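Quick start: read one record
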Amino acid sequence: MIISTTETISGKTIKETLGIVEGGVVMSKHLGSDFAAGLRNIVGGEVKSYTDMMEKSRAESAKRMVKQAEKMGADAIVGMRYASSTIMGGASEMLAYGTAVKLK
């Protein structure tokens, strides 16, 4: 599966637009991570547990998006983006979305 953040793929021609595809995931950290993050807020620096959580969220949401595109018979996804939002303290939603297409 070719995934591009642009609306076209260099050297390829889009034959058919199949529609929007998306994959979402909501992830949270346990209380211990929230406590450690609170301490990190005081002294500054990267909150590694949240960085890891967001990396996993992006990977899982992209995987789900690709799975949906494959079910539609897509060869590629163009215009791919990520969006995130806070659901509650310590929990975040990650959404990967784009347009599924067939290539010539």
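The longest helix spans residues 48-71.
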